[in-house]
Amino acid sequence: MKFSLAIACLCTAAFAQDASAASIVDAQYTPSNSNEFGIIIGQRLTLAQTFVVQTTGSMTNAMAYIRGPGSNTANAPLELQIRTINNGKPSEDVSGSNVLASAFVSASSLSDSLQWVNFDFTDFSVTTGQELAIVIRSNTTRGEYIWNGDFAWPSQNFGNTYPAGTYAAGRAFSEGASSGHGGLWGDVSLCNSGCNDSAKVDMSFRTFVNAVTPSVPEPSTWAMMLVGFGLIGATARYRRRATKVAYA
Asked: Are residues 32 and 117 in the same domain?
């Protein structure tokens, strides 16, 4: 009995095991230009980028193309949050159930040049097609963090032509006093024109998901399972014969 049960458990385990792959890049957008648009300063401006999850699994971390505040050292770290979507915009909540993940990096850990900065947070479950938002913010009262993105306004006075964002599954939002939206999420706007020129903006980002998929048994595993089932069958037949002899 114990022998056959062990074989049965072994066979079941061979079918039930899952293969956990390493985290893979899921949703992403890499700007086509290297301009340093995207000032993130705690009491002035916060930025967000909405996106769509591509792979069901556990989201493990996210990255953004960012530079630090340079010599004008910030007095608070930079925070990346993953938030839920409300009516097409990132949730306004800075804590609670609508904030699915949060991670910080210190100002001193960031270069003065743009770089892909990683934010590790506690894993949480995501599903294909789920709409979420990356929010990057800081409570610093000095210094500026720069989050790189593609942007183009209908009219701009920079003397340069920058490409518009082309990420089809989301868009950028701004929030804060300098965005002209009363502290609520709104279009990224060109304040030199009275904050009335809405821009087409997409920020740089990469999200990473650990997808768990059922494993496919190898030939040796199939052979082991077939032997196991054969032994179970033989044990059952032996028991039936032994029972008949006992009652004869």
From this structure: yes
